[in-house]
Amino acid sequence: MEFDEAEKLCQKSLEIHREHNAPASIEEAGDRRLMALIYEAKEEYESALEELVLASMVMIAAGQENEVAAIDVGIGNIYMSLCRFDEAIFSYQKALTVFKSTRGDDHPAVALVYNRLADVYCKTGKLRESRSYCDNALRIFSKPVTGTATEEIASGLTEISAIYEALNEHGEALKILHMAMKLVKDTPGQHSMVAGIEAQLGLMFYKVGKYGEARGSFENAVAKLRGSGDAKSVFFGILLNHLGLASVQLYRIEEAVELFEGAREILEQECGSCHSDTLGVYSNLAATYDALGRVEDATVILEYILKLREEKLGTANPEVADEKRRLAVLLKEAGRARIRKGNSLVNLLDPARRG
Quick one: DSSP state of residue 12? Predict the structure, then answer.
């Protein structure tokens, strides 16, 4: 997850290609795809798009039709992140045409593109088209071609389930997740995938108010990750936060505090104190402290959140106003007032100071 260091190393590799290889080599295209992954992870989407377009040009010149299609899927993903949905659909459709032609209508690569198209149509409110692509992908993954890796099928089914969930088809989403779980639960080396499926099950149960089942699924996921030595990752921190929320709904407040504190420690280390996931945990922790009567502890956290949000968003932002209201209630309980100097209106409206 050290993306800045990865970017430096990949940049060195590209420089070596320029010095010692023929222009626009296939090897250079491979490293450009790697660089695009790094930029995507850093949310530098325009830079990622540029690298993928350059890689695509090389593969087109080399006649690597399937590689061009795979890059088109990546380009579509970047367009999705940029909310350029029409361009995403165009890229996915290009890839779909090639994969159907070269690999057949029932290949997992075709199903993967169906999933991407289902997702983009769901996000743009075209639910009938989204459901149609979901059904096509499910048909392929339900009867996979010989040689398809089990984890590839399970991953595809998990994606389909998430889209059905977004379409408010909770029963179908749960059924598909259970299919995915059945495929990988006894497969060696798949602890992280099983934990991911358990976590998704927990989220679904939570959304429909089945907090006991949600807590059980989150606990299973936590146990899987701890067993595989992956108890310091961002995913693990977020998972502890979700488990804490389920515990709150079951009135297990002291347990929730421990979970939120564990999540805070991990996310501060991995994401930093200003990251949205970390701020979310801070807010949950403040609420549980308040529920236990630890008003001073809750107030300290809310003042810290408010300070960070004011610095990043400005004092007039609705999120900042919400935090101020919460803090005012706690300060009233604690019998003191918050003293600070307000930003001038000039600073508040200066775009350079908002970001």
Answer: H
